[in-house]
Design a protein that fits this description.
Oligomer: single chain
Helix content: over 70%
Strand content: under 5%
Largest sheet: none
Number of helices: 13
Radius of gyration: 19 Å
Length: 264
């Protein structure tokens, strides 16, 4: 028998830990070697990571509201907390995708722009609109009830991340040496599990009717982002996934506070 130490088993607990490390800045130790397709196998945990980000954002807004801050200040605290949790990973993807798809003329030039760390005016405008829409939605949620705020943030962050594994399966990775290519392709089981978890979070946070409207609309918005990327650059990059997540989050937050006549 070999005396070499066995590699740690990559079970659900380690997969969840990796999902949290991949999508947040949480300092969770991951001891031992990981399989090459570790992130793809952990993709089912993406909505759980999103729910945790939403909880932190809600806690920040509730704390601000409790000490008497204006609704806008509390809403911006929520956004700041979620960005701190993720390192503004998805916001960076939104800006880079907007710059690349909006500013480049050829596929090669678009990919070059998206890889550039500098931000252009398309990226700036995308961030202004994205942050502005989220802040406006959260102001309404803060002025409503605390439970509504918590539900809105958990639904938006979990639901938008739940759809990412499906995009990763539907689109090819276009940058062989990039982060997206190194992640691998999530399995059908992992993708479906993420979808079920995200759907449950959305329905818990928004209710049946608003949850259905918001989730379907968010899915359409994220598919549009994927379709644009497929048409212009041939598939997806990590930045495209970030942009898709931001679109889904924005739509779900807007659905949470939309004045939609409900049948009850």
């Amino acid at each position: 028998m070999s005396n070499l130490p066995r590699a740690p088993r990559f079970g659900p607990a380690r997969q969840l830990a990796l999902g949290l490390v991949f999508l947040t800045r949480l300092p969770i130790p991951l001891r031992g070697a990981l399989p090459d397709d570790a992130v793809a196998r952990a993709a089912w945990s993406f909505p759980i990571a999103g729910a945790l980000v939403g909880l932190v954002g809600a806690a920040a807004a509730i704390a601000g509201n409790a000490i008497g801050l204006p609704a806008m200040a509390s809403a911006l605290l929520a956004l700041a907390a979620t960005m701190a949790m993720t390192g503004a990973l998805h916001e960076d993807g939104l800006a880079d995708t907007a710059d690349g798809l909006g500013g480049g003329r050829t596929r090669e030039r678009k990919l070059e722009i998206m890889k550039d760390s500098r931000i252009g005016y398309y990226g700036v405008l995308a961030l202004i609109v994205g942050v502005g829409l989220r802040a406006a939605a959260l102001v309404s949620a803060v002025e409503d009830t605390r439970l509504h705020l918590l539900g809105a943030l958990v639904a938006a962050h979990a639901g938008s991340r739940a759809l990412l594994p499906l995009l990763m399966r539907a689109l090819p990775s276009v940058r062989p040496g990039g982060l997206a290519a190194s992640v691998g392709v999530p399995s059908s089981l992992s993708s479906i599990t993420a979808l079920v978890l995200g759907t449950a979070a959305v329905f818990w946070g928004l209710g049946d009717v608003l949850g259905l409207i918001g989730f379907v609309t968010a899915a359409i918005g994220m598919v549009v982002v994927g379709a644009l990327a497929r048409r212009q650059i041939g598939g997806y990059t990590g930045d495209v996934l970030g942009a898709a997540q931001q679109v889904g989050e924005i739509i779900l937050l807007l659905a949470a506070v939309a004045q939609i006549p409900l049948p009850y």
